[in-house]
Amino acid sequence: MMYIQSRKRKWVSPFSSFLLFSPHFPLNLNCQTNWKRKKPNHSEDPNSRASSSSTTPPGGDYEVFLSFRGKDTRKSFTDYLYTSLVDVGIQVFRDDNELRVGEEIGPELLRNISQSKISIPIISDGYASSKWCLRELAHMLKCKRNEGQIVLPIFYKVDPSQVRHLIGRWEDAINAHKKNLDKMIVQEWEEALKEVGSLKGWESEKVENGYMFLHQDIV
């Protein structure tokens, strides 16, 4: 596996090196992220790793935050991507809580998003129906605007143009939220969907060999 060394002699992970030089994401090299790569622990019990929601780095800073709707991708693409990133030593946070207490997103979760170097929202069919996913997405994009965080969306079996223009299920989801929630909050989510739909991202439907090839492209 190939590694790239920066001028400061800090190693850049395979994932970030792909992001820097991929034709899909022509990032400004001045924004290059120096990663502190954790060596994989091959003696670790895979069962215990699979039951954990995140790999916890010292100080709580994560390299990647995954946002996804569990019903859509937890047991397929998200789990596969998460495991692949962890296996190459990337510190990943994913929120695996199925049962929510109350309606407010916890400050710890927002902090994990803010402290991550890269956020990856996995935009699937039911993503916009989840208040939690939309709250995460809005905060990611806020961090992108205010702090320069990198947001790299994956459009999983969805058309980004429909997300961008709120067509079909995307419009239906926003209208459903408007019936029960504050209009200002829903407007923020609406703008977040339009913004993420305009970002350059991976589209699973355009990857020839499906999500298994897509995850290799990302890692």
TrEMBL record:
Its EC number is 3.2.2.6. Transmembrane segments: none annotated. Pfam families: TIR (PF01582). It catalyses: NAD(+) + H2O = ADP-D-ribose + nicotinamide + H(+). GO terms for molecular function: NAD+ nucleosidase activity, cyclic ADP-ribose generating. Residues 60-218 form the TIR domain. Residues 48-57 have a biased composition (Polar residues). Keywords: Hydrolase, NAD. It comes from the Eukaryota. InterPro entries: TIR_dom (IPR000157), Toll_tir_struct_dom_sf (IPR035897). Residues 36-58 are annotated as: Disordered. This is ADP-ribosyl cyclase/cyclic ADP-ribose hydrolase. It comes from Eucalyptus globulus (Tasmanian blue gum).
